[in-house]
Amino acid sequence: MVNILSTKDIQLTIAKRLKEARLSANLTQLSLSLRAGISLGSLKRFERAGEISFKGLVQLAFALRMEDDIALLFLPQQKTSLDALLEQAKNTQRQRGRKS
């Protein structure tokens, strides 16, 4: 799969989603930073520029009860050979009933 988003685009998208989650939880930046154990400056920089350490991101996810979203990152992808894909396509063709 080809990704047309830049790393900055992805950072800002994630920051926007976390900010929306913070606002939905009716938390101020200060209360979330205290709950997550990160500095207020780090949270502000993250929401504004998408920049934060991975540890800080995980701490924010836990504070917002979104840790499952972090745990789902980078799951192993199933690798299949071309032969396996061709066999799968062959097996999924429509079956026709026999004439009696």
Shape estimate: elongated
Strand content: under 5%
Give the % helix.
55-70%
State the fourth-level CATH superfamily of the domain at 7-73.
lambda repressor-like DNA-binding domains
- Structural class by SSE content: mainly alpha
Q: CATH topology of the domain at 7-73, which one?
A: 434 Repressor (Amino-terminal Domain)
User: What is the arithmetic mean of pLDDT?
Assistant: 88
**What would you say the CATH architecture of the domain at 7-73 is?**
Orthogonal Bundle
Care to describe what's here?
- The protein has 100 residues and is mainly alpha-helical.
- It has a domain at 7-73: lambda repressor-like DNA-binding domains (434 Repressor (Amino-terminal Domain)), CATH 1.10.260.40.
- 61% of the residues lie in helices and 0% in strands.
- The chain contains six helices and no strands.
- It has helices spanning 7-24, 29-36, 40-49, 54-63, 67-71, 82-91.
- Helix 1 (7-24) crosses helix 3, helix 2 packs across helix 3 and helix 2 (29-36) packs across helix 4.
- The model has no long low-confidence stretch (mean pLDDT 88).
